[in-house]
Amino acid sequence: MPGATVYSLESILVDLAITVPALPERGGDVLATAARTNPGGGFNLASAVVRQGVRCVYAAPHGTGRYGDVIRAALAEEGVAWTIAPRPVGDSGYCVVLVEPGGERTFVTVAGVEAGLTTDDLSGVAPRAGDAVVVSGYDLAYPGSGPVLADWLPGLPDGVLIAFDPGPMVLEVPPDRLARTLTSVDLLTLNQREARMLTGAPSVVSSDELDVGLLDAVRRAGVADGAMIVLRAGRHGCAATGGSLGRRVLAVPAPVVRAVDTTGAGDVHTAVLLARLVTGVPVEDALVDAVRAGALAVQHAGSATGPTLAELRSYAEVEGHPDG
């Protein structure tokens, strides 16, 4: 709907991204080939939403210190609003990201004040019907933020789209908290590794090939009846079922691209999907755009590589007419 807002409760921290020729063995060392510092975590999603011309509000804590300053400057530059004043004590956290030559990344997260969301923090968050709220498994896993979010989500007004991206921390979320969240969501989006972690399902295809059978396994894991499930498969695109798709399974292939860095690609996919859905775009078209956006994002190094609306439209035109 026009004027809709995406409220992001995916906490933002700072990425310390280090490019390595290979991961070091245990107790070993490796010489990095590059390093950079930039906002990450929930910033990937928030920035990608506003680049699609949709309002995004960041509704999680941020700190007083150099990392908090970096985050607020980046939010202001992108045009993302925030609802919570900087914490007077404590800084935002950071994440060490090891990036391998093929673009695969490995994380070590050091939480900061973003892990301490309170009920008072949420008093200024008032989504309306037609808006979306998105949360991540990282925040549900935190002992401070997790219970607050799990209590808050079921009380949101009817018509608010509740989206959940469990991420790689899915097994760190206490089972009762995870179960409550899964029964509250309208949209569950996760990659295949996370789906297998959530369900315990074995891999029946090669590690990156799209495994649509996982959709049924995820549904049986306690997801709300009628919720849409989106299964992301990197270079193989995504598959979805539920929501307005009903029992139909829709597979969306991804364009063939050379991946430079996959950091935040899933966040970009989710951001564009939400941006399209809150503006009334049919889910089939929204998923196609989300896959295209992810393909564009992985061709650039660093986080927050989501395309603008103009870039995505231009890419769609080229993809539709490959011979020019």
TrEMBL record:
One of its GO terms (molecular function) is kinase activity. Residues 9-305 form the Carbohydrate kinase PfkB domain. The keyword Nucleus does not apply. Coiled coil: none annotated. GO terms for cellular component: cytosol. SUPFAM superfamilies: Ribokinase-like. This is Sugar kinase.
